[in-house]
Automatic annotation (TrEMBL):
Keywords: Coiled coil, Endoplasmic reticulum, Membrane, Transmembrane, Transmembrane helix. GO terms for biological process: GPI anchor biosynthetic process. It comes from Acyrthosiphon pisum (Pea aphid). The keyword Endoplasmic reticulum applies. GO terms for cellular component: dolichol-phosphate-mannose synthase complex; endoplasmic reticulum membrane. Pathway: Protein modification; protein glycosylation. The lineage of its organism: Eukaryota, Metazoa, Ecdysozoa, Arthropoda, Hexapoda. Component of the dolichol-phosphate mannose (DPM) synthase complex. The chain crosses the membrane at residues 6-23, 35-59. Belongs to the DPM3 family. It is a multi-pass membrane protein. Residues 64-91 form a coiled coil. This is Dolichol-phosphate mannosyltransferase subunit 3.
């Protein structure tokens, strides 16, 4: 639950900052010049988050390493289980 709390607090802080810029709470030159960007900031951040998530997934899939010793151990256990089941009367095709 700690991670969820961190995310909720972070989103709330960003929302408060965004709303204060959107409703001109701080009379600054930047908020007047870039008002269009400020309006679409949540959509822009959502797109960036999606691109980042996709990049992380693609990286993790590309660098996924095989564990050959575990695969060999599993194959050996499967063979042992087959022979044990065949001795008990099961037939495999």
């Amino acid at each position: 639950m700690k991670k969820l709390t961190q995310w909720v607090v972070g989103v709330n802080i960003l929302s408060i900052l965004w709303l204060s810029l959107l409703f001109n709470q701080y009379d600054s030159k930047i908020s007047k010049e870039h008002f269009l960007v400020i309006q679409f900031l949540p959509i822009i951040l959502l797109i960036f988050f999606g691109v980042f998530a996709l990049a992380v997934i693609l990286y993790r899939v590309a660098t996924f390493n095989d564990c050959k010793s575990a695969a060999e151990d599993l194959q050996a256990e499967i063979k042992e289980a087959r022979t044990a089941l065949q001795q008990k009367g099961f037939k495999f095709d």
